[in-house]
Structure formats: C-alpha cells, structure tokens
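Re: export button greyed out
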Amino acid sequence: MTYQVPVDDIFAALKTAANLDARMAAGIYGDLDAATLRAVIEEAGKFGAEVLEPINREGDKHGCRLVDGKVVTPPGWNEAYKAFTEAGWSALPCPPEYGGQGLPEIAQMAVGEVWNSSNMAFGVGPLLTQGAIHALMISGSDELKSTYLPRMVSGEWTGTMNLTEPHAGSDLGELRSKAVPQGDGTYRIFGTKIFISYGEHEMSDNIVHLVLARLPDAPQGTRGISLFLVPKYLVNADGSRGARNDVVCAGLEHKLGIHGSPTCVMKYGEQDGAIGWLVGTENRGLNTMFIMMNQARLAVGVQGVAVAERATQRAEAYARERRQGSALGGQPGVMVPIIEHADIRRSLLTMKALTHAARMLCYATAGEIDAAHAATDPAAKQMAEMRAALLTPVAKSFSTDIAVEVASIGVQIHGGMGFIEETGAAQHLRDARILPIYEGTNGIQAMDLVGRKLPLAGGAVVKAYIEELGQGVAEIAGSNRPEFGTMAAKLQAAVGALGKATMWIGGKLQSNPEAAMASATPYLRLFGIAAGGVYLGRAAVAAARDGDGAKAATLARFFAENILTAAAGLAETVTGGGDVVLETTADKLGA
Amino acid sequence: MTYQVPVDDIFAALKTAANLDARMAAGIYGDLDAATLRAVIEEAGKFGAEVLEPINREGDKHGCRLVDGKVVTPPGWNEAYKAFTEAGWSALPCPPEYGGQGLPEIAQMAVGEVWNSSNMAFGVGPLLTQGAIHALMISGSDELKSTYLPRMVSGEWTGTMNLTEPHAGSDLGELRSKAVPQGDGTYRIFGTKIFISYGEHEMSDNIVHLVLARLPDAPQGTRGISLFLVPKYLVNADGSRGARNDVVCAGLEHKLGIHGSPTCVMKYGEQDGAIGWLVGTENRGLNTMFIMMNQARLAVGVQGVAVAERATQRAEAYARERRQGSALGGQPGVMVPIIEHADIRRSLLTMKALTHAARMLCYATAGEIDAAHAATDPAAKQMAEMRAALLTPVAKSFSTDIAVEVASIGVQIHGGMGFIEETGAAQHLRDARILPIYEGTNGIQAMDLVGRKLPLAGGAVVKAYIEELGQGVAEIAGSNRPEFGTMAAKLQAAVGALGKATMWIGGKLQSNPEAAMASATPYLRLFGIAAGGVYLGRAAVAAARDGDGAKAATLARFFAENILTAAAGLAETVTGGGDVVLETTADKLGA
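Workaround output, generated via the alternate export path:
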C-alpha cells in the first residue's frame, strides 16, 4: 500500500503539543495560517508518495557504489532530488534573504516526517543540508553566507557535517584533523572523517562540507576545535563552480540499513591540503556545531516518528488483508483478517500509540524552538530555549527507541512474510536501527538530559515542565469522560513517578553524579512515556471537545492502560537499580 | 573476538533450573555423569569456535543461490557439515538403536546453544533434521524407521518439515496439498510449500521431507491432515539411493537474516506426483507434528539464548577495547574503555541478565522433558509432561523476544560501528528477528500458554509451578545475603503479580475468553521475567553456598532491581489493559 500522510495526526500534535492556535494567534508564525500549513503538508505527502516512496525499495536493494572516486546513488535518486529542489522543498525552512520560504520549525518537522516516511535514505540528505545551512546562518561570515547559502537553499548544492574520525566517535575532544592557516584568510585541511552521510555523490553540482579540525596552536580537548567550510569544488569570484578541491571519498560503508544514503569515508588533504574557510571563531567550532546538532537531534527524532508511522501503516494494511485463523467464538474454518485477533490489535495499538506519543514530543520541542525564535522578550525567549533544550534529548531518544520497537512489531505482524525483504517491513527495522545511534547515541542523550538539562536554571525548567504535565492530568481527570477508562489515574501515577524520579536524580547530581548517570537511560524512558501520555490525553480531551474524539481517546487510553503502567516500575529502577550497576565494575562484570 | 562456550553458565542453568544433581542421582540420565556432560559441551564449544564460527560471516555475505534447480550453500558450508557429521554431532541425541548416542534433551539443548551461537544459519539445519528424526520415532512404521533413521542419525541424510503454504501460515487447517493413495502403500503428493529451511542443498546425499497433505476423502480443517515422508531421492530395496523424486526447489527467499540457511519454495508433484509414505495414522498428521513442534519450539528458544549470548560476548569484548570519553571524576582528556561508563555497564548487565534468565527457562523445560522421558510412574510422567507443556511457550517466546532485544542493545553498544555489517553485531539482530516468528509466532505462543496450558489439569499445573516459584523466593529471602540488595522483595512482588494475573486470566477464561487472549502477550512476558528472576536468584543462592557467588549474585540482583520492576506494571496491563483492545474493533482502529 502507498504511504498516506497522516495530516490529521500531525495537526493534532501541532495543536496539542506545539500550542499551534495560541501561537498563531499571538503572531509567532507571521502570516502563515493553519490552512496554508495543512496545504503544504498535504502537498508534501503527495510528493513523498509519488516521487520518494517509489524509489525507496530500489534504493535499499541497489545501495550506493563507489566508481572511480564517484559515488553512484541508486536508480532514480538523481531525478528525485532534481524534482525535490524544483518543487522548492529544499528552500522551505530557509531564510528568505537567501531565497528561502522562511517557514518555521514546525513546518520543517512536518515535511521532514513525510520525506523520511516515504524514503528515509533519501531524507537523510536534505536533513544534513539543512543542518549545514543552519550552521552557516549561526556563525558564517557574510561572505561565506552570500557565496554558499543561495545555492544551498535552492538545493543546487548540498551540505554535510564532518565530525567523526576513526578513533573518536562520540568523543569530539579527541579529534585530530588539522587546519593550517595560509595567511590569506584560507586554511588547508588535512584529516580523515568517517560516517559522512552524502559526503560524495552526483546529485548536486557542489557539496559544501562543514568540517571540524584543529588549528596548529589550538588547546587540547573540545576547546581547541574549529569549524571550517570546505567545498568539493572551489567557487570562482563570479560565483561559478571552480576547481576540484583536495577532498575525496575513499570508501563507502556497507550498512545494516539506509542503503540508499552513501556513508562515506572522506579524506581531506591527501595532496596539498583541502582549501577551507573558518566558520565562526577560532577554537569555538563546537559551539556552532552544538547549536546545529540540537536541531539535527530533533530532526532525527522526527525520522524516528516517520519510520514508525510508515511501519505502522504497512502493518495495518497487511493485518486488514491477510486472512488467517478463525475468530474466537466465530465460525470455525472461516479465516478472518488477522486484525480481528485481539493480539494483533494490541500490537497495532502499541505501534500507533507509541508513534503518536513520540510525534507529540517532537512537535512540542519544535514549537518551543519557534517560540524562542520569535520571542522579543528576552525572558520569554530564554524560557522557550531552555524548554526546547530540556525536551530535545527526550524527543530524540524516545522517538528513535520506539522507532526500532515499532518497526520490529511491524515485522512480527507480517509473520513469516515480515522476514522476507520484498515485503518491505524488514527494511523499516534496518533503517530505524541507526536512529538511536547517530547525532549522539541515546545513551549520550540520556546523560545530556540528566547532566546538563535537569540542572538548567537550578532545576526550575524541569520543575515547571512537570507541573505543566500535572495540570494536563488535572484537565484530563476533570473532563471525566467514560471512554477514557482509567486514563487519568494512570497518568497521575506516571507523572507522580516522574516527579519522584526527578527529585531523586536531582539529589544524586549533588551527592553522587555517577549514580545519577547510572540511571539516566530508564529515567529518560520514564520521562518520555509520562510526557507522551499526557499529550495523548490532552489531545483526546481536545478532540472530544471538537466532537470527534473516538480515535484520540482510544490511543490515549490504550497508552495509559498498557504502556504507562511501566512508569512506577521505571521509577523504581531509576531510584533503586543503579547501585548494582555502579558496584559492578568492569573487572567484576566479566568474572 | 572468538566465541567462548559459556560452560559454567550452562551448568548453572542445568543445576538450578533443570535440577541436574538430583535427577542424575535419581538415575534419570543413566550412566551420563556431570564430568562427561561438561566434556561434551566443551568439545562442542571447540567445534563451534573452530569450524562453524569462521564461516558465519561469509555465510551471511554470500547467502544461498539457486542454480539449475540446485541450491548452492555458502563457501565452507559443505565442508563444515561433513566435519559436523564425522565428529558425530548429528547422532548425539539420537536413539542408540539407530546408531545414535542417546544423550538426553539437556545435552542436545546445550550443544544446540553452541551451534547457534557460532552460526545460527548453520544451526537451523541440524535442528530440523532432529525434528524429522523425532517425528519418525514417534509415528513412523518400523520399515520407514529402519530405512531412513540410520542415515539421518549419521547425518548422511538430512530432514525437513513442510507445513506452510502460500495462503496459510499459522492456520494449518487451511492447507491444500494433496496426497493420492496408489494402492501399493505409497501416495502421490501434490502441492506447494513455502519457507522450507534446507529444503534443497547438496550438503547431504539425500533429503527426507516430512510433508503435511490431505487425503482425497479427508475431513476439512485440522482433522483432515496427514503426514508423509517424501525423500528427495527414492531409496532402493538394498538401501542405496535410487531415482530422483518429483520434488523441486522452485525458489529461494531473500531474507532479513540467516542468509546461509536456504529458505526454499518446494513444489511437489509438478510432473506425476512425488512419491511419499504415510507417517502414522491417516488424518492424524498434526498430532505427530505438534509433539515434534513442541520440542522444536524449545530448540528455537535455545536459538534465542544462543544468539543473545553471542551478541553479548561481542558487545562486551568491544566495550572493553573501545576507548571513548573520560571517566566521570576521572582525568579529563584521558579516554577510557567504554565499559567504564555506567550506562554501558547497564546495557551489558541487561544483556547478560536477560540472556541467562532465558537460558534458565529453556533448561527448566528441557529437564522436564528428560524427566518425563525417564519416568516409569505414569503420574510422575504426566506431571513432568504437563510442566514441560506449560513452560514451552514461555521458553520459546521469552527467549526469542529477548534475543531481539539483546541483539539490538549489542548494536547500540557498538555505536556507529554497530550499523556497519563488517562489525558483526548487526547480523545477530537480523538473524534473531526470525526467532519470534517461526515455529509459531510469539503471539500464538502466548495464546497457547493462556488458552491451552493454563487450563491443564484444571489449573493445577500452573498453580503448582507458581507455588514452587514462591518457595524459591522464600529460600532467597531466607539466605539474607547483603550482596542480594533488595532482590527478595522484588521477587516476592513479581511472583505475587504473576499469581494475581494468573488468577485474573483463569477467571476470564471462564467468563470471557477473548479478554484472556487480549492480555496473553503481556501475561507471557510477566511469566517469563518472574520465573527467570527466581531461577537467577536461586542460582545466586547456590553459587554463594559453593563459595563463588559474586557473578551470580550480580546478575540476579541486577535482574531483580532493574527488570523485575516491570512486573507490577505488567500485571496491571494484563488485568486492566485489555478492555480497550477488545473495544477497539477493526473498524474503529482505522477511524
């Protein structure tokens, strides 16, 4: 079956979690109205279904090849990218002063969901170009901006991010690539970078690499890293494409998933050095990178939502079609569609509820980013920024963890056919598996949440957020709708458990930070389900108010009665499970 | 790193869960003593590490090819199989009267774990041959036995199981393959079977297919299915290989994992009918098949343990080697092995604890099978049989669910490298993903547990088992060891939750069976963690008694304080989460 953009679900998330109506009324979104936003998302859905999805399976089968230093992307990739840029999709969220359409983060999230549902291996490319544009906007000189941004916005040129080196994945402090100043404002870059998505290809006329490297006199560690722009082709004074720069793709990785996305080993300066330009301040490259990575992390969370959504749609279609077994109490010997079996419906409801909860978390984060962007009052700006900072690791990790879970359930619903690649269900699992890893592993996200985000404003940011969840629960309890079942009680227990676990972690951060870190992963999961559950419940209240609440109530109630039931146990794990982890040192673990 | 057979862990499971010492003392295992058993397992470990593991990755890369009707298995496959049979491994669990070594189920489980840890795609073959031997032992005529068993036991000939047809996966009642009696004691078989593992290959001189089909006058549904033996090559009167039978491999599946195992579409009777012989009684083929499948289900559970074990060993080796990040409170800028990070140790402990709990469940089941086999007292035999019947769906499902989880954590521990196929971690996830599906999906196992196994002996079987778990908890609580942390309390709560959920399900089976089925999957998980947790705790008590309890205590405590914490929530889900599933009928689910 073909992908259907879940525009109603996206709007429910925008309204409930991103506070769309109030923010539109407050003028945050300028002259963008809801009808236009919906039209954009629907149009994206058409493009995804008609252009990107048809090449998805071929992309998976063929993968990419490195031929004489050139990367050959899968059949249809070049054409699809051309159509993508011609339709203006690459320009959508970009600054109008460089030719962009200036749509806000929420719109970019929504269309990003569509690209990645239709074809995640394709979606990786625009995601990274957006990241590079973002980094240049934050820190690039006017000259770099005017030289590169218009063509990156139009999509004629694409962008990459070059962080990882063979010996240093997550630990950027250890990176060794060198940048040697030439005295003319340029630098020569030397080094090897790995895991560079779309590091080399022929889809665009040029590739703008953003590369982390060290200056000769740079301090050790993360405070001695600078960011450089290194184009594949130099740019002539008139803006035309010039000579080839000293950067090559030395290899492609053979990966578990996203085969259509070339993952390159990039070598800079194999000859006399790749020519690069400093982006931002010397030795402060990580600052830019981190701002950009935060947004990229959210975009990866949305990739998780996207793959989970696609896996769910595929599994539901199969469950409605495939006949197997007779219904309990039904006519013996008459096979029914497997969706008639309660266990299959439990699986489908799990997929839907997890996916939609994750979507809520992502849009909640995107809404705060937009609010921060638009805010004129510095206090309001800071509050929104801090809220976004708090939610980003949760949105990234929860959404990508559930993407793997949901895709795996999707395989299971297909039975034996799920294990056959032609079916398409297995690809979602393979594709999804990178999501908890890249842009900072989910373990790192959990430590970011606990170590950096909980202490924001002395703990006031998380405190206010949990209070807000509590108000949501009160609203749900107050609505007192019979179709909500025991939802309110479950939510109350879950938010209570989150509060308790947060207090405990806060205390440990003072007294024994390693104990806080040892429980970071179950804490993040607890945060994700509690918040996700409240958003689903609030969406159910809103839908009931609008007179069309059956579906929203079902998802929220299912989530509360079947997934949120884990909350108390997770809080117990957070507060009581870390000691044995700490006591089991590496030598004891193997003994 | 090379696979290391976890012989101590296997013995811990044998002693704690399979009651090895008492059963050996009672003479159940004849003259097999513990030292011999350990030597067999260690020898198997050597064979696995030296012969099967070295061809595992190649098998994954090359997969199988169908060339002119012949299946070409991966490089080294034929040689490894030859070495396997020459070393006598195929004969290990087989009846001595046909040349086997007559080792018990527990020994077969242990070596099966080794084959599947070393190379699951290879391990599938012997597993199915064992199943076919088992079916012939149960129901084959003396003539069929004497003609086929000696060569199947020696491994010269291999066996297959042919159940699934394109339109009917789990629902065997719908199968359409036909068997036409020829009046001479033979039948002509016509039909297409799919998902036939090792249905065609050149590793053995002959392939003995066991095929489910219908006689012309057979009743509809599952009561009209007969079992036939259909050899690839007919056998001459002198026992030599005769003419090719009318059975061909018409295609190979392109699968997510176990690429080295050929998954065949088999066509019977494309010409004048494949010649076959009835196994057992007409129309009673499923009885034989189910007895055999029960044992095969346990063997699949062991495959889950095996893949989880291998994924854990790989991840631990990587975590000890890979340096990344400085230790919290350690010297900044000095990268430490990632095992020093608490979050990584939590992941490794999760892998180890889940794997070992699953192993306990599998060996508990195998022990009951052996006890039933050896029992002379009919009541004791029946009790052991029913205990095995109760535990089989739990052993199969829990072990295979955790195999996927553990393999996924293994990928995660490797970070970006985990997504690269060369690393080997991703293959475990791909291979493991079939396990919750084949030999009856885990959803079907859950329904089997709830619908067929809980009602055994009017509920007395499960009641006695849960009481026994309670005694185990009392023993653990009584040992009162400080290194156990809060283990006893967590176990008590978990076994209490299991008891409560079991009562609830038992009531619903009377009043509203569909409600019981709607909660079957979370109930099975609860059963698995509660039982697994008690076994781990009992193993810790035993190890402490033997003076070497540190590792066992760590695993048991970690499991209790971090995994068993889910028990109360699962019981809540079982008793309170099913209503919304039932109420959400197929039409409401999509709305």
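Residues 253 and 263 of chain A are 6 Å apart (CA to CA). The button fix ships in the next patch.
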